[in-house]
Design a protein that fits this description.
Blueprint (H helix, E strand, L loop, with lengths): L2 H11 L2 H8 L1 H14 L5 H32 L3
Helix pairs in contact: 2-4
């Protein structure tokens, strides 16, 4: 469970909107390690749920990046 302290520490140094996409790799690692260590084969509902969560998080990350660029473009003097 080394990942959780690292993620918490990263939130201290970067905004949550930047760190959040990396947190979604924890879902992928959980599925992979669950299969390798316990032989747990995820069903379609689990994979679909993980895909929805990851896609929503990445969409939010993308939207915040686009909105940040627009705000920066408006705030900076010519």
């Amino acid at each position: 469970m080394l990942a959780l302290p690292c993620v918490n520490r990263s939130l201290k140094f970067a905004p949550a909107s930047v760190v959040a996409p990396y947190q979604y790799t924890l879902i992928v690692w959980a599925i992979v390690l669950g299969y390798l260590v316990f032989g747990d084969v995820p069903d379609l509902a689990t994979l679909a749920g993980a895909a929805i969560i990851i896609a929503a998080g990445l969409f939010i990350f993308w939207r915040e990046q686009v909105r940040g660029l627009r705000v920066a473009a408006v705030v900076e003097p010519p």
